[in-house]
Amino acid sequence: MVEAKTVVHDWRDIFRAFKMAFDPKKMFLGYVGLLASLIWCVVAVAFFSALKLVSTNPYAFIKLVLYSAREGIPLAIKNALLAIMPLDFGEFVVLSVLVFGLLVIWSLVAGAITRVASLDYARDESVSLIDALKFARKKFWSYFWSPLVPVIGVLFFALCNVVGGMIGRIPVLGEIAVALGFPLAILSGFLMVFVGVIGALGLCFMFPTISAEGSDAFDAMSRAYSYVLSRPKQFIWYCIVNTLYGLVCLIIIAFVAWLMMRLSLCTVGLGMGQKFQAVQAFILQKCDIVCLGFCSTPSAEIKTTAVSLDRWSLKFLAGMLILYVGLVKLAVWTFVTTYLLSAKTIIYFLLRKEIDSTDITDVYLEEKTEEEKAEISKKEAGKLSSPTEGAKEERFSAEEGYKPKEGEDI
What we know:
- Helix content is 76%, strand content 0%.
- It is globular.
């Protein structure tokens, strides 16, 4: 049995999330998840745009990756505000399809990442990538429904108010019923706020709960609400430490990525000369793709200067540069994803220890199936049989070696 790592088991364990985030398995899963999400959003929006259901440009999602922080963050806020504005039926269908696809992707990816993080932090055990994905696949519907449970609760109470409003359409009696029953609508509004706000705060604990306990969506929801309400001070303190430390780590990672890309472009530009400078100017008139918050704002003159590339090979070079830089930036966002999932897993274990008095090393482990047990027993039997047969042969050879020759005295 693997001994648990000696840790302090308090808020200082959150600082371990930086190292845990760089686990190759987590980074691979996070990168694939972000890349799949980007492809899904672009393809889905392009499809629905062709059907004239939405007017959103599918390349807006790619711009979120390529643009600098000062350009990308306002764009993301603008898109989020547009998403929560009143939607028509077509836009609602498109939004539902996008959310469904993202939930499918991250139910597998985030489930596997939190499973790896749970065993890493609690028992200092390394689970293989295949086993983590198998666990996420078995618990897929638990991961899928856990973020939707608070949303369903809010929609249920909202529907109750809508039905009450429909009763008010009845002349006289309906108006009296609404007047007398409006306190129930106020209560329903309070429940919508309670379920929605607490659910949003406890959302970060739902995936770690399923990964650590092997439970279902309802257990994940109940633990998320319980931990936020039972220890609000600890929850807020852990979130503050997690956020501040995460920002410091993100600045360091972003600076390293920016310096790496900037040095690569500068050194190649020294060798290639003006052709490479023309390619950079062509890209820069669209956006400063290399900027990760550590570069000055390009002047308006540079952005308005029209730069064209006369050969297809130069355009191909510009396109590949955009692709390479986009992949590097996606790696930075991958670190953000793996760090948040690792930190939230640690916080879940700490709150579980304080509230439920459950030992940190207590993690759900899957029982081996009959086929796996039979395969393991065969391997063990093979290992045991080999040295036994070898010992028998050695013993027999030794006995034969001591046999006296014919006519020889013993």
